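Journal club prep — side note

Before the paper discussion, L.F. wants everyone to see what a predicted structure for a comparable chain looks like in token form. Sequence:
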Amino acid sequence: MGHLSTHVLDTMNGCPAAGMRVTLQRIDAAGTHTIKALMLNADGRNPDGPLLDAASMAVGHYRLLFEVAPYFRARGVVLPEPAFLDVVQLDFGIADAAGHYHVPLLVSPWSYSTYRGS
């Protein structure tokens, strides 16, 4: 049974990105549609479990928006205006609706890294 999940780690402070706002969108011929907006829990994950469960998984193009600058500012990090990274936008595809797609983000105010996790 497929599902989509994410996990965000703050590499500047060495901890999960608790409190970061994240938006999941689907992209299709009609445009971009917000599926879910959430705030990450103490573990840097969606407090409600998968972003998409097996019943919601569908082949297609998706986007995750991670609100990086507001998160770091809320932690007291002084950032320039505009911040080097404001919202990290990750566009990705789901080719197998029965697959497990995990999209981790390692982030600091100046860099980020992602990959398809397990």
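L.F.'s comment for the group: DSSP finds one helix and eight strands in the chain. Keep this in mind when we get to the figures.
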